[in-house]
Amino acid sequence: MVLLTIASVLSLGLGRALAQSGVISPLARACPGYSNNTDVVCINRYASAMPPSFERQSSTGGVFSPNDTFVETQVPSDPSFGLVKNATFVVFDQRGSQILGPSPKLESVFASRNDSIHEGPVYVPSLDAIIFSLPHQGIYQQQIIHLNDSTPRLENYTTTPPVYAVNGGKLFNGKIYWAVEAGFSFPSPQNGSLVAQRPGIYELDPSTGEVTTLLNNYFGQAFNSPNDLWVDDQGDIWFTDSWYGYAINVTVYPVLRPATYRFRPSTGRVSIVEDSIAQPNGIGMSPDRRTMYISDTGVTDFENYPADGPLVTATTHWEEILLGSYIINKRPIYQAQTFGDDGFHVAQNGYLIAAEGGGVTVLSEYGEMLLRIETGFTVNNIQFAGPERKDLWVFGEGEIARVTWDLVGMANE
Ligand SMILES: *[C@@H]1O[C@H](CO)[C@@H](O)[C@H](O)[C@H]1NC(C)=O
Ligand SMILES: *[C@@H]1O[C@H](CO)[C@@H](O)[C@H](O)[C@H]1NC(C)=O
Ligand SMILES: *[C@@H]1O[C@H](CO)[C@@H](O)[C@H](O)[C@H]1NC(C)=O
Ligand SMILES: *[C@@H]1O[C@H](CO)[C@@H](O)[C@H](O)[C@H]1NC(C)=O
Ligand SMILES: *[C@@H]1O[C@H](CO)[C@@H](O)[C@H](O)[C@H]1NC(C)=O
Ligand SMILES: *[C@@H]1O[C@H](CO)[C@@H](O)[C@H](O)[C@H]1NC(C)=O
Ligand SMILES: *[C@@H]1O[C@H](CO)[C@@H](O)[C@H](O)[C@H]1NC(C)=O
Ligand SMILES: *[C@@H]1O[C@H](CO)[C@@H](O)[C@H](O)[C@H]1NC(C)=O
């Protein structure tokens, strides 16, 4: 009896101790150096041990829930988590605050169309402008943001011939290379006459607006819908070919399996380099040119996930590049903390900056979570711009915003 009582007291005490021990309190606090800036918050130990009553919504039925995020996690017994919901810059790692500079800022620059994603932004130093695209059924031109004046100016941008549904772009040797999704003919925005087009890789001369077709088939088979690309130092174009062109109804039902290819414009040769990623999306390369990164948005695989099943966050992979021609040793480096990673860019110091759900994620070169920027709108892609490549332009549904901080982008990235 006495023993039992002692035992139950012990177990009660022990139970309480077990539940509490290791739980991090507070989960969030003002960041050192940003004590008066509620826009910046630091997460203690990645919030790795929360009070057990935490609850995060999950997305089901193939539909992303805006509350299925780290910052919208409910943590009723830790009021400090309110700091996270109020902040724009959520710092997980000291390296995350080191790139913020003394007064980081996220500002909305343009309200934009909310019926289309915003993709393929490319900064053109000779124009001091960003050319980007609205890949959406019925939009047959691109847009340009002029940065050479006191305030940024947004205009429509129509090429010759016009191009339908650009989804990715990179600058190389003064030319823009475009990954283009649409395979349906469309009316020219200039004069209404029908323009025929196939999905593929196109080259734009930004000084004249003229567009040349570089690649539109694989031995007679049309590509599905090239999504994004990266150009290596010898001018070879590495591009992802996923199924989103069909998903947005700008081309026919996919024939080729989703894959990543290397295309050599100087000879016309195309070689497959990867075919195990569900839906290859963003693509980029480490500054030392040894590691290729490819994001996988198979989370949106409209054909293959069960309609009533849960959404699983998507992963980003890296692969080592060998002899400039092959990629080997694929391994996952990061699982999206929310939804999946879309377009991304590699900073001068090797960090990865990714468009991910309702914000921007900054990872170390090894895929470690350093910083989240919560933008309040779904982000599709990003681009460093300006003479020092320090402004990060953020393109998403309904909004174009700018982050000013201390991280520097690479030329041509
Ligand atoms: C923060 O605000 C307090 C009170 O307004 C002020 O005394 C302090 O100097 C500020 N600290 C910084 C780092 O700006
Ligand atoms: C998300 O959570 C907020 C409260 O935190 C709630 O008002 C809103 O309805 C939720 N949205 C969805 C789609 O569940
Ligand atoms: C978050 O912001 C709201 C509204 O400004 C404020 O009422 C609340 O106290 C803030 N929460 C924290 C934890 O600072
Ligand atoms: C999108 O914009 C249109 C026109 O500005 C507006 O009527 C509509 O409510 C917006 N839709 C959403 C989902 O914000
Ligand atoms: C900025 O560029 C545009 C387009 O090239 C040009 O029309 C405009 O005059 C330029 N503005 C300045 C201040 O140079
Ligand atoms: C771009 O063109 C569309 C029509 O194609 C027009 O509705 C829209 O206002 C134009 N946008 C800008 C920024 O000029
Ligand atoms: C319409 O514009 C295209 C360029 O966008 C041009 O190639 C074509 O000749 C024009 N057609 C007519 C009928 O003017
Ligand atoms: C898809 O696009 C084609 C060609 O532009 C059009 O005829 C068709 O109506 C579209 N389908 C839907 C569901 O919008």
UniProtKB/TrEMBL annotation:
Pfam family for this entry, one: SGL
Organism: Aureobasidium pullulans EXF-150
Protein name, per record: Calcium-dependent phosphotriesterase
InterPro entries given in the database record: 6-blade_b-propeller_TolB-like (IPR011042), Oryzine_lactonohydrolase (IPR052988), SGL (IPR013658)
Keywords attached to this entry: Signal
Signal sequence range: 1-19
Keyword Signal set for record: yes
Domain SMP-30/Gluconolactonase/LRE-like region: start-end pairs: 119-394
Keyword Signal: yes
